[in-house]
User: Fold this.
Amino acid sequence: MELEQRNQEIQAQSGTSGLKEYAVPIAIVIAGFMLAVSYYLVQTNAGSGARFAVQNAPASALQEAVLPSAGVELPVTWGDLGKKLVDAGAIDAAAMESLYRNRGGMPAEYRTLLSGSSGKKLVMTQDNAGYLLNLLWALGLANKNQILEDKTEMMNPEYGGAGNFASTGGWTIAKGDAMEHYNMHSLVTLTPEQQKLVDKVSRNIFRPCCGNSTHFPDCNHGMAMLGFLELMASQGVSEADMYKAALAVNSYWFPDTYLTIAMYMQGKGVAWEAVSPKEVLGADYSSAAGFQDISSQVNAPSNRGGGGGCGVDAGAPVAPKQQSGCGV
Assistant:
């Protein structure tokens, strides 16, 4: 009996010794493998150039820089523009309420912007970016502005009229047809100098869903950005601050796009806070072709959604009426 017990003790000690003996070499192998994988992920040679990525720890910091969780204060107040859009029929308040009722209800903040008045600066967050997109879309579409009369872009006869684009055909929550309100209401009046500024800046702000600038607002994002530029210019925002705010807005509307661009910039040694908003919003980065080139050099972040649709119904794209590359 004592002999059997002694044998069991010897076997137990032997097993423990074996574990200790192999533990260190195994740990070394695992550590080496992890280092190799980390190096591969940080910079992967892709033939002609390097593909940039960031490790998990700095990735969350980068995301916070591009898409602040607390939101971004925009340099404009909304006032009673929502009420004016409703009174003009450019927004059907009942249809808007119904739309958001199906999404869980309309918060008090949304209702105030739609039918009340607010003297506070607008704050865009990941939660309200879609709602502000819709409000600014209505403003850009309905506000009278000579950009919407451009016969080489929105009013080009070759496209069959402005009503064939996603920015017009996709606006389904107006009273009557959207074209009854297109460029029809004097909601934001600009001085000649302010109009020149909007014209200038709009030609240099692109969106990754197509190759068109804001000066050719054929989709919801383009039309909303036009409305935003008009609003900023009317309230005396400088050109530099217009670009800065436009980059923040585009980042919330197209989160994957600008996280990818931020990763590319970080790979080049440029922090997101140090980028030139004007440069990043230009065709080389923010147009469909420009972003495709940038993203080919980056291990892109996982899909965060947003930004893809050209309709008010939960981002679903509008059925094409006229080919333009933006879902119309």
The longest strand covers residues 72-79. The CA atoms of residues 17 and 23 lie 10 Å apart. Strands lie at 43-46, 49-52, 72-79, 118-124. Residues 1-57, 314-328 have pLDDT under 50 and may be disordered.
